[in-house]
Amino acid sequence: MTTLVLGLALSTPAQPPVVVVGRPVVAPHLRPLPPVVVARPIVVPPPVVVARPVVVVPPPVVEAPPPVAALTLEQFSRVFAPTPGRHHYWIIHPRTCQPVEVCFVLPNCGRLDRVRVNRDSIHIDIDNPDYDVDVDFRHDGSVRVRYSD
Hints:
Oligomer: single chain
Strand content: 25-35%
Shape: rod-shaped
């Protein structure tokens, strides 16, 4: 119970108040009519609904990662280090001139025989066990990586 309703419940009488409404004066030989009793209705105000406050939390600020410098095919041929494992490079696509991500895996065995770069592909030769990686830059802007044993 809220304090408003409790206060109203304690301050109102148990019975509704009685109001006597007078009747017109009648002749003395007639018996007077009993007074009319009218009860006043008790008006209870509706309960007050208080909405909970809405807490608005601003979204977190997401910063974009720093731009990665993409390499041309010529720059890639100079900086490529043929170590075993995964390799991820951003290379400028020779057809679309847009940076694309190129990912490939080199095996743990064998040594690099040579890296050939031409106008729209990269070819990596590993001498043992004759493992090759071909990266082809297609006309539609996509990149295809092929492995051959």
